[in-house]
Amino acid sequence: MSNLFDRFKAKNNAAGAAKASLFLTENNANGYMSKNDLSIYLNQLTATDFLRFERMFELMFKRFPINNYIHRVIDKIDNEEVLWLKFKLPNSQQNVRIIYDKDILRFIQDYQEGKFRNGFELEALILEAELALETEA
């Protein structure tokens, strides 16, 4: 159990942050994807691509800036349409390869332009979208 200070800081730091429900078009006219489109996108990802997508959300949740121009490129190895994100960390740079989707690109660009502060990780989005998750044993 965390102490009162930690609970207070967590609640107040998240107060101005975007919630997972705002990502979904069912809850927000300016949202990025419907629950169905999110499900289709996630189901097309390989295990590695899914981990990369999850890592993107982790870095955005921690508010690390993306310091490159984001645009769709064709990966030379597998001919996939991808986005390359370069997150600036305090002592390094983290490159993350994301499978391209126009709505994901808009989400990333809005984050990069400071239109919102991401206040959720991928698991929260999956739960908000009511997508099935295997329970932990």
Q: Explain this structure to me?
A:
The chain is of the alpha+beta class and 137 residues long. The chain has one domain. It has five helices and three strands; from the N terminus they run H-H-H-E-E-E-H-H. It has helices spanning 4-14, 35-44, 47-61, 102-112, 122-128; strands at residues 73-74, 81-88, 93-99. It is globular, with a radius of gyration of 16 Å. The relative contact order is 0.19. The mean pLDDT is 86.
Rough shape?
globular
- Uncertain regions spanning at least 5 consecutive residues: none
Rg result: 16 Å
Q: Please count the helical segments.
A: 5
What number is the mean pLDDT? 86
Strand portion, in percent?
Answer: 5-15%
Could you tell me how far the N terminus lies from the C terminus, measured between alpha carbons in angstroms? Answer: 22 Å
Strand order of the largest sheet: 1-2-3
How would a crystallographer describe the biggest sheet?
Answer: 3 strands, antiparallel
Tally of domains: 1
Number of strands: 3
Give the structural class.
alpha+beta
Order of helices and strands: HHHEEEHH
Task: Please estimate the helix content.
Answer: 25-40%
